[in-house]
Amino acid sequence: MYIEKAVVHRDSNAVVVMKEDGTVHIPAATVASILLGPGTRVTHQAMSLMGESGVTVCWTGSEGTPLYAYAPSLVKSARLLEAQARLVSRVADRLSVARKMYAMRFPGEDVSTATMQMLRGMEGARVRRAYREAAAAHGLAWSGRRYDPADWSAGDPINKALSVANSTLYGAVHAAIVAVGCSPGLGFVHTGHSLSFVYDIADLYKVEVTIPAAFGAAADGHDALPGRTRTLVRAMLHRNRIMERAVTDIHRLLVGDGAARPADETDRVVLWDEGDGEVPAGVAYGDDFT
User: Fold this and answer.
1) Which of 8-17, 32-41, 42-51, 144-153 has the lowest mean pLDDT?
2) DSSP output for 38-101
3) What is the per-residue pLDDT for 185?
4) Partners of 35 in beta bridges
5) 138: helix, coil or strand?
6) E strand or H helix at 214
7) Distance (Å, rounded) from C-alpha 19 to C-alpha 29?
8) SS3 of residue 10 by DSSP
9) What is the per-residue pLDDT across 141-150, written as a single tens digit (0 to 9) for each?
10) What's the gap between Cα 15 and its chain centre?
């Protein structure tokens, strides 16, 4: 959800959005991510409810871009985070994960020996082709992806719609990433940004979600272009089961297809041991020392 020029507070288990034109009650358990735009005030109780419900809350600029701050949802297990940190810290493992990401976009092609430069070239050609095909399908003129992150309003309608669509996808993917306990900042293809892993995972779905949604919204000629774009993106997120797929894909990339997922992610604190791997916490060790 994207909210601007409103007061957000809590009523029991519902997030309440108060605007000049009315009030809306939203069950917190039904929302994955909320983007708070300019002119929004949120109460402590509302943030408490959203944290308890696993809602990722993001602070954004106008119409959802850019994304510049977020509050992560609660998570109890560090299993995937540890795997992510281990893989991203070793060049060979990082390259292996990056190749897996690209292989998902090029089914049937062998990318096992491709360099990052080669993979970037393949991806660039794929995305440019998707832009041209979407433009042709909707009868729109397309001159390329051009936008100013600091001035969303300066772009043409298609580029504006693409920025809004991507921001909406980032919010959904961000929610999936923190929900499974990973770091949004430890990317494999992207690097150096607090949302690098968000961009990595979102890139897996842009061609099937944000590009058709943005070109479709621009072709509709709707006066409320950002709202129409977000509506189309949400429909595609649901239709293509992106949230479910994102969770599955993250597991596959970090721990493999055959790794069992813990059935019960309850609070469990252990201590690291160089020999045994881990030992129980909450134990008074050293009884035999004085």
Assistant:
1) 144-153
2) TTEEE-HHHHHHHHHTT-EEEEESGGG-SEEEEEPPP----HHHHHHHHHHTSHHHHHHHHHHH
3) 93
4) 2, 58
5) helix
6) helix 210-220
7) 22
8) strand
9) 999 988 776 6
10) 22
